[in-house]
Specification:
425 residues; alpha/beta; 7-stranded parallel beta sheet; 17 helices; 14 strands; 15% strand; binds adenosine monophosphate
Amino acid sequence: MLFSDLGLQPELLRAIADQGYTEPTPIQQQAIPAVISGRDLLACAQTGTGKTAGFTLPILQLLMPGTNPLRRVARAPRVLVLVPTRELALQVEDSVRTYGKYSGVNSFPVFGGVGINPQIAAIRRGVDILVATPGRLLDHVQQRTVDLSAIEILVLDEADRMLDMGFIRDIRKILQLLPERRQNLLFSATFSDEVRSLAKGFLRDPLSVEVARRNTPAELVSQSVIHVDRDKKKELLLHLFSQHGWHQVLVFTRTKHGADALARKLDKAGIAAAALHGDKSQGARTRALADFKAGKLVTLVATDIAARGLDIDQLPHVINYELPNIAEDYVHRIGRTGRAGSAGEAISLVCADERDNLRGIEKLIGKSLAVTLVPEFAPSAHPQPPVTPPRKPGGERRGPSGPRPASTGRPGGAHGKHRSGSRHH
Ligand code: AMP
């Protein structure tokens, strides 16, 4: 199937061709005709499936002058896209711009953490598609700087994330402010009871579309683990960089502090790096992401929260410098690569006190991760092959070498590690 088979206007086809895309992804094949026909949509689709274009393109088509049975009201926004994070707001709005560049439809992102006045000015000038995080949108509502009475289409993007982040009350408030007659599209990577009940509350006879099962890591991502001592991780990472000549790598750390320290270290070693985390100003984050996309930075060192909603075309490598505490975060992390058909690679550097996390991840994704041996960095206390554990008094290596007791304080962590070590070989 080609994009031209979907009945899209030439202006949109031209913008798609500019991106070099020829074939619509499965979610696009299903969502585009349904949305154009005016139906509500309930879509189970993760980031990386092409879902953003799946709703952006048909919405642009509906808004384009002359193609649209819907009446244009003043200059109040006609489409509202609600997203959980500012990064996602920026990225979705960027997609609207990309696909809409020949359409005459305009858009603006609205999110907290930045001055409200430029947003007020933009809304006053007139915005067709408003992409907003719920909190800041309600600020505008309260200040009466936005008029939602002309909304014809509502999109909830990453609905599960929004609920996870506690936005349910804000969403319900916003729903009350919208005209009753409107088209609704809901996108979610997972379908908990909460998401279902939200969907039931406002979708009318929706077409259900599913393109990825829950917690299925992108199939194209090759995943592996390198076991290494904690204090050798930096060196190993530098070794991997020099060995592979990587040029676009997203590295995950567990803490903001860790992200800063690692980015500094990489930068010093001649690998252009920046840290991306919640303490960075919005300006710094946007700049870092732009530099990374433009190839000025070789690597971004990010925390899980900061990386939510990151959309980087053809990101080839994700490195888990530290495993996340929450197994689901691993799936989100590796979902940053191997997107929309390109192959990706995710490598996790795992030290002894992260074995429990590794086991949790393997349980969640339903398979063991392949182990790559880097002989120069083989961990000193790696039980290989399984041997009777040396029980020296006070011989627990983790205490002094671990950075902080808090990160290792899980009871039972030490006991399982020999068994798990042997299982992974
Ligand atoms: P999304 O799932 O919306 O986050 O999109 C994932 C990535 O796929 C984005 O970087 C898009 O630019 C890209 N993409 C979207 N549609 C297509 C397509 N039809 N062919 C190739 N890449 C696409």
